[in-house]
Design brief:
Rossmann fold, alpha+beta, about 35% helix, six-stranded mixed β-sheet, single chain
């Protein structure tokens, strides 16, 4: 029984530490915790249907274009800014495009809004991404994620809704949480 527990713990730890990126150039030019990056391109496409797989109760509205909420172009800019800031926080950001690798992202995004008391409020989002790390225009690593979202405490949305503080600013806060994970994966790339 003790051996089974040890093996189970090892498998769990190994699966948690895995990275979703695949290296396409060997040896990789990426040096773990040292290579510098910048985000060269982010494209966001609003889609429908992702959330039903992840959250059955939320109401999804078409295309996610609502007053006060970012459109696709604005969302791409927000995501780029968040990732660049996280890269800076880890000291792996480079504003010098000639001496760093660039990150290109294609994101499918579904915004979930609730119609509460005739007022649209932010609920959550579901997204997936295709990330590419490029050097001199050639892809050296890439990642294709499955759909994911922010996990919540059971009463978190109720507390947000009752406080009247459940608008676009919370969407950006949630994006920061999720994108931190992607940046940590990039930080841990390489040998």
């Amino acid at each position: 029984m003790k051996k089974l527990l040890i093996i189970t713990c090892f498998i769990f730890i190994a699966s948690c530490s895995s990275n979703s990126f695949t290296y396409l150039q060997k040896p990789t030019p990426i040096v773990k915790n040292q290579t510098h990056y910048y985000v060269s391109n982010v494209n966001v496409k609003f889609v429908e249907g992702k959330a039903k797989k992840l959250e059955g109760n939320a109401i999804s509205f078409k295309r996610g274009q609502y007053p006060g909420y970012p459109n696709e172009k604005e969302m791409a800019s927000i995501i780029k800014d968040i990732i660049n800031q996280d890269l800076k926080d880890l000291n792996i950001y480079s504003g010098n495009k000639n001496n760093s690798l660039n990150i290109s992202l294609e994101i499918e995004y579904e915004r979930l809004l609730n119609d509460t008391f005739s007022n649209l409020s932010y609920h959550n989002f579901a997204m997936s991404h295709k990330a590419k790390i490029l050097k001199d225009g050639k892809v050296v690593a890439e990642s294709n994620s499955k759909d994911y979202t922010v996990k919540r405490f059971p009463f978190e949305l109720l507390i947000r809704a009752s406080s009247g503080n459940n608008g676009p600013q919370n969407e950006v806060k949630d994006l920061k949480k999720v994108l931190k994970g992607l940046v940590k994966e990039i930080y841990n790339l390489g040998n």
